[in-house]
Amino acid sequence: MSSDKQTRLAARGVTVALLIQKNGENAIASRIEFELYCPRPVKIMTIIAAADVGGTTIKLALVQDSVLLARAEIPAEAEAGLAPALERMVSAWRNLCNRSSIPFEQIGAFGISFPGIIDPRTERVWITPAGKFEDSRTIDLQHWAQNRLQRPIAVCNDAKAALAGEWRFGAARGASNAAMMTLGTGVGTAVIMNGAPLNGAHGLAGNAAGHVTIDLSGPQCLCGNIGCVESEGSSWAMRRQAEAHPGFAASCLATAHPLDYKALFAAARDGDALAIELRDRSLRAWAVGAANMINNFDPEILIIGGGVAVAADLILPCISSHIRKHAWAQWEVPVVAAQLGNDAGLLGIAHLAAERL
Ligand SMILES: [Zn+2]
Which residues pair with 70 in a beta bridge? Predict the structure, then answer.
């Protein structure tokens, strides 16, 4: 329960009265007033070993409730597959325990946030990023955890884990319905609906809002679809748009290394014509994608995360304004920046793992 909700509840007193009949009318014989009992939010004291697997690095941590007790980062070596990565993760967790003087046996559960589509019932991997962890579809992670770790494990898509973190500890605390877009290298999305992560039959629901077509004549996306939000507005798409533009050589973007959104927004602020054009193209794609999310999932709040936080002052009002004009919602949907940054995935997957205890 959020502290706001607690405050609201605590403000409501409860009166219990004993009524007696006196001359045919009710009269109060005794009355007791007391406040509703509002317990503090339940703290999860068990230590969870969490991993947030990315395409290039794996972030690891020992987590207790909302606190990262210790953290580390190892190379993903995704081309070598998930099986060797799992063994390196176990070694890294053991090292973290040694460093923190926490016996490995004290870990209550494990959690892995993974950049693919995860079956919500079996937690097996359905889809992986192209060329990365290609053996993961053949690995039964629950079976592996039982044999290798002898403790429960939660496995979850990375966007869902990040939203779970924001939902439990960050920008979406207290909401029963929340949506998140992570803008940057790609466009990752996830949804909490009616107080639970939205999954669908195979785990795809809510994850693919960045791969909805917004331009029928648009370019092919990495996912195979055409004119996706991501193939219009992501750092890989933006680089492709820049390099194909006749004005590229004359733009300061030609000398930006790396050519990412930080460089693009900085160049646009300095008045570079191509940077302004491409910035506005990405903003339109994100705003249209966000309005589609509102129409499809009806969240109370939309959280924007990812590397574009450098220009949140520009991006959030732009998305809000588009939603007001074009989404079906006749009410205000707050569009807010993510609060937990790179820790959202670790905190979220640790929270989901703690629920297994
Ligand atoms: Zn796509």
Answer: 62
